[in-house]
Design goal:
This protein is α+β, with helices and mostly antiparallel strands and 234 residues long. Helix content is 47%, strand content 10%. It has helices spanning 20-32, 56-65, 67-70, 92-105, 110-126, 128-155, 198-211, 217-226; strands at residues 34-36, 39-43, 74-76, 88-90, 172-176, 193-197. The model has no long low-confidence stretch (mean pLDDT 85).
Length: 234
């Protein structure tokens, strides 16, 4: 069995029959991995190591035999990948699904296919450029959200639920109509944000917790109706 070292901070030992040559293909893949807009892509010409074959053509044949599994994750875009001199690539999730299906279809090689899946997952998770892109994106989103919240607080002089003016001792809170956990894409959408009094905001969330309701538009409408609040902004 091979001991596969996966970085300077430690190692993962996989019970597998992968050869040293197959392992070396994963090391080369690190340099060939494409990172665009915070997402990872793998060139179709670099799948032979992942799919446990020494032939690039054989790897492509495996892809072609499993269109229903991978077609949603194949990206053919010569412009997008121009600087990498690649015309087509695949998102890793497509390979994860394919490897799991290959493991189920080939019990004798199941451990090797799953070892390949584990290696691929680790390489992508540890790729420094991908990690940096994710951090930059997260910081930008946080900064954007803070900016929107400050602007909405300055703009609104009246609580958008009670329709009462904010008193000098009232806290202004910005509430997500559809919660971030329910729909992260709406976190910075101004149409999904309302400015309300802090006391109302706290009472609403306590009410949600008490009854086990999700943070959604429908529950906010129900809460507003129970408390005779305005529905105009919901």
């Amino acid at each position: 069995m091979e001991k596969i070292q996966l970085g300077n901070n430690g190692e993962i030992v996989l019970q597998t029959t992968l050869t040293q040559g197959q392992v070396s293909k994963f090391n080369k893949l690190i340099k060939r991995l494409i990172i665009e807009d915070g997402a990872a892509y793998i060139p179709l010409d670099e799948l032979h190591g992942i799919l446990l074959t020494n032939s690039r053509e054989r790897a492509k044949a495996i892809i072609n035999k499993n269109p229903d599994i991978v077609k949603a994750y194949l990206v053919r875009d010569t412009v997008k990948f121009q600087q990498y001199q690649v015309s087509a690539a695949i998102k890793p999730v497509g390979l994860y699904n394919l490897l799991e299906n290959l493991a189920e279809a080939n019990p004798k090689k199941a451990n090797d296919y799953r070892a390949s899946l584990a290696l691929l997952s680790y390489i992508i998770a540890q790729h420094p450029q991908l990690a940096l892109s994710a951090q930059i994106k997260a910081k930008y989103k946080e900064s954007e959200q803070h900016s929107i919240v400050r602007r909405l607080k300055r703009k609104n002089k009246i609580c958008q639920l009670s329709e009462e003016y904010f008193a000098s001792d009232d806290e202004k809170h910005v509430h997500h109509i559809e919660g971030e956990s329910e729909d992260p894409n709406l976190a910075t959408d101004e149409k999904n944000l309302i400015v309300i009094k802090g006391t109302i905001h706290e009472h609403y969330h306590n009410w949600l917790i008490k009854w086990g309701f999700p943070i959604t538009r429908n529950t906010l409408i129900k809460y507003a109706m129970l408390n005779n609040y305005s529905l105009r902004v919901i």
